[in-house]
Amino acid sequence: MSVSTRPSRVRYRVLGLVVLVYFITYLDRVLLSNALPVIQKQFGFSIGTLGLILGSYNWGYALFQIPGGWFGDRAGPRIALASVVIWWSVFTFITGFSVSVTMLMVCLFLIGVGEAGAFPISNRALSRWMLPGERGFAQGATHAGSRLAGAAAPILVATLIGLYGWHMPFYLFATVGIGWAGVWLWYYRDVPGEHASVNHGERDRIVAALGTPKSRQPIPWKMILSSKQMWTLASMYFCYGYALNMFLAWYPKYLASARGYTLAEMGFFASLPLAAGVVGDILGGVISDAIIHRTGKIKLARQSVAITGFLIAAGCMPLAVLEPSRYLSAALFGVAVFGLELVVGNAWAVTLDIGGSFAGSCSAVMNFFGNIGGAIVATATGFIVKGYGWNAAFYVVVALCVVGAILFTRIDAGRRLATDSTSPVV
Fold this sequence. Notes:
- By secondary structure, this protein is mainly alpha-helical.
- The chain is 80% helix and 0% strand.
- It has helices spanning 10-43, 47-63, 65-75, 77-95, 101-115, 118-127, 135-164, 167-187, 200-210, 221-225, 228-257, 263-295, 298-322, 326-355, 359-388, 390-408.
- The chain is globular and about 60 Å long.
- The two termini are 28 Å apart.
């Protein structure tokens, strides 16, 4: 094949931009949990109030998942994703001026409202670009971007707070988000055929794999919400969302309260589990895609990797909680998050596999339930810790990991939700 006819690789640049927005989303998200212990000392509120503040973000994030997915499917990913990033970046900036608990809660709720659309719209953005055999890797890469931000944010936030106070990270991260939105509007197009840099080779390859894009169709909410598979997928993701958000919302506080870490130590050790999660994200997608290429069995590929991940997390967390050595405990928590992140890329790949043209709405339903789990863990953990201690809070997470593994045995990624979906599956 000559250079002139070799397929272009614009879809990988599109994937790179989506990875970057996942990174920015989690940069802002993990900023909240790492800055709040410092803000708590300044404002003097209790651990129960801390849970309510964290919950205000998570409830906004959870409740607007489905509206966010709907917005992406109706307006198109180019306009919709830029809009929600600008929204939450503006309110992240305003959060830096907070002078009361009420203002914090309102701002964090509105940040959650904006960030709610990020993942469903991003999933929709990839649905017309990534080939079926690339989806496991794509989903692993995007979530690796988010976990990389989760790993970097504690150290970065601790450094910025130490140098400039807790306000500065909010101003800085908001500026980064607005800059990304400008680049996205300039480069991304909703379908490959509209992108000037896509040549015939790449366009033909995408059309052969995904079919010709159809005119915008009504979103079949009745079909989506009446699907047993959709409810199983959503319930599984509830378990995942509860488990992951224990680390996003509460792990820095656990390190400070239960393990006695200083601010500098907390930044380093809080980053380790999410750094391990980056590896899990990449491997989960790569292994899943490799199984598809070797066996042609998409159900086996998604199930085997995700179930293994849930069981790894369930096995390592009790050991981590009971381990007296801070280093070995941190390593075990890292392996637990590694296991959780074997799940996430496969879960999101399933929404592409079964959702096709309605991937944004399907992933929004799944992510809605995941973030209901996240909202519950953010709100309830403070009260669980107050009544029963930190160990009990982690044992709840372990139980939900086991339930998640059981539920994934009932998910068939090869069974499409709608016959008119444009996403062919094996």
